[in-house]
Amino acid sequence: MTEAGAKRFASHVRMPVHNADIARVFEEIADLLELQEANPFRVRAYRNAARTLGDLRIDVAQALAEGKPLPKLPGIGEDLSAKMREIAETGTTALLERLRREVPPGITGLLLVPGLGPKRVKHLWHDLDVQTLPQLQRAALDGRIRGLAGFGEKTEAAILQAVERQLTKKKRLKLAVAAQYAEPLAAHLRKAKGVRDVVIAGSYRRMKETVGDIDLLVTSSDPESAMQRFEGYPEVREMLARGPTRASALLVSGLQVDLRVVPAESFGAALHYFTGSKAHNIAVRRLGQERGLKVNEYGVFKAGRKGAETRVAGDTEESVFASVGLPWIPPELREDAGEIEAARRGGLPALVTLDDLRGDLHAHTKATDGHGTLKEMALAAKAAGLQYLAITEHSRRVSMAHGLDPQRLARQVDEIDRLNASLEGITVLKGIEVDILEDGALDLPASSLAGLDLVVGAVHSKFNLTRARQTERILKAMDAPYFSILAHPTGRLIGAREPYDVDMLKIVRKARSRGIALELNAHPERLDLIDTYCRMAKEEGVLVAISSDAHAAGDFANLRYGVGQARRGWLSASDVLNCRRLADLRPILAATMDRKVGTLRPALRSR
Ligand code: DGT
Ligand code: CA
Ligand code: CA
Questions:
Q1: Atom 5 in ligand 1: which residue has the minimum CA distance?
Q2: Residue 205 C-alpha to ligand 3 middle, in angstroms?
Q3: Which of 170, 203, 217 to mutate to test the pocket of ligand 1 (most atoms within 8 A of CB)?
Q4: Residue 301 near residue 310, CB atoms below 8 Å
Q5: How far does Cα 511 stand from its chain's mean position?
Q6: Which is deepest, 1, 114, 278, 347, by most CB within 10 Å?
């Protein structure tokens, strides 16, 4: 940090703290408590609180600063509320600081290695005296880890891979977390004198699931005012570079922001350039060269006599694309993954939008690990503009979530019938997120599934099976008489858990033959299916369900991230199951319920 930066840092009485920051503090407390073998209920309380915060729509620190009362949050009692307040005001809490002092400083870094939880870290630390990432790498290379109880050779190899990735990787933020930092900054800049546009470009605009840094583009008649407003943003920890129209800063959160101020006539060219991707830009520039045009961030130029140049485009993105003979290409497609050829032959898909979604086919309530009642969830879905909502609780095998057994499921079905009789403008569908057991059987008997509108099947355990066995397990489940949608098909958690190893093409083809849809889970930590598998599903004629997996009323807002990922996967409304009207959805779902085992069904797809 520069001296000026340090001064700025120290002079801040109140640093803006976002929900993600508070959640991170709670997660770290939970990890450190677990490391110290604290009471598991206490550990769980902090983890649940972190999750609740992650899903919360209001900004806690801001609400507190404005003197607004916080809503009653599930699982957050007086003690945690007080800590939330403390973190909102100071960025940390005395408890965390104390816990940190009680472990060696490198230990927290070990906890960040995917696959290493507090239990394993504790073993590594106590049994091998491993306290830092390099020590962990050394221990794995020397083959010392495999001998520990509960580790083995495979685990050692996985740890080595994870630690090497961790040591080399640049930290990337999940899109939804980046949004928490980038959007308030953009709003702050919009108030600068002379500003016309403020756009968050780069991977953020392309809706990539993680972003490396934030690229802000501003058009203004008074660049200096915009620059000063940027420098004065309270969350700026350090200015890394500062010129008259461009700057880079490191925020307190560790996020880097690149800012560019351009005149209005360059807006389109700069927006195109800074949206990227780099590969897409290079391909467009090459198209320009074929036409004797120079395409850069200032505009599109034609070379004249004696080196003179005339500007032929650049004020809008449309003008830039038009100058190279293309229609405007949506940012989510700009990866040089075939979008330029498609645009040239007029074959760009009409991408699905949030407005196209008519319902949601995966949600939980208080009956299991959700926070809302049936009615609250239904009304929240309606308020989010949806016409139907499927309630799909966990099944009994997922005991952490208090999954439903046949009796409780039957009771919920009755409850939904009663609720539907009293609701208007929204229909609640009866579903289940049934666990796929290790052998591919479903966690509930067919007799329990028979009365439902849909069955969502999901893997929640045994992530480490071999590719062959994992694939076989899922294919077998999809052959069950009742199976409508395969939930979060690869099981990955962004930055935390790798996808399990499966042959996705086989699964997609099974889905096609059984009329099953694949889920695109819109939770910001999942976004599973990934974009390339969305494209695969589309090409094979399999429908995708963009599902919130809502656990609280506010979670329907996550659908926008699912839609972003679907757009990156080239999906149109016709490729998305829950863009169907309820009347059109019902027969599609009905065809997935009560089949004879092994019966082939025509594909879902009806173009
Ligand atoms: P990120 O930040 O890693 O998530 O990914 P991006 O795509 O936001 O990349 P970033 O921030 O390095 O640059 C923003 C955009 O600027 C990028 O998408 C395309 C453009 N850009 C950056 N460097 C180059 C370059 O060397 N050539 C071209 N043509 N464009 C570039
Ligand atoms: Ca970027
Ligand atoms: Ca950048």
A1: 203
A2: 12
A3: 203
A4: yes
A5: 24
A6: 114
Unique residue bearing structure tokens 């620190």: 61
CA distance 472 to 429: 30
pLDDT at 14 over 60: no
Ligand 1 atom at minimum distance from 280 CA? 29
CA torsion sign for 424, 425, 429, 435 is: negative
Q: Cα-Cα-Cα-Cα dihedral of 155, 158, 163, 165, to 10°?
A: -170
pLDDT in tens, 408-437: 999 999 999 999 999 999 999 999 999 999
Q: Ligand nearest 275 Cα, by number?
A: 1
pLDDT grade, residue 224 (50/70/90)?
very high
- 434 touches 455 (CB < 8 A): yes
The pLDDT of residue 169: 67
For the chain, the C-alpha Rg in angstroms (whole number) is 26
pLDDT digits (tens, 9 = 90+) for 95-146: 998 998 888 878 888 888 888 888 899 999 999 999 988 899 999 999 999 9
Please, are residues 291 and 325 in contact by the beta-carbon 8 Å criterion?
Answer: yes
Q: Kindly state the tokens that stand for 19.
A: 């929900």
How far is residue 48's CA from residue 27's CA, in Å, rounded to a whole number? 9
Find the DSSP H helices in 479-595.
504-514, 531-539, 559-568, 582-590
DSSP state of 444: S
Over the stretch 27-86, which tens digit does the pLDDT of each residue have?
999 999 998 888 999 999 999 999 888 778 788 888 888 888 877 888 888 899 999 989
Per-residue pLDDT, averaged over 14-23, amounts to 78
175-190 and 19-35 helices, crossing angle to 10°: 150
pLDDT at position 438: 96
At 226-278, the pLDDT tens digits run: 999 999 999 999 999 999 999 999 998 889 999 999 999 999 999 999 999 99
- Cβ neighbours around 249 below 10 Å, total: 24
List the residue whose alpha carbon is closest to atom 22 of ligand 1.
278
DSSP string, 239-276: EEEE-SSEEEEEETTS-EEEEEEE-GGGHHHHHHHHH-
Q: How many angstroms is it from 25 CA to the middle of ligand 3?
A: 27
Ligand nearest to the CA of 172: 1
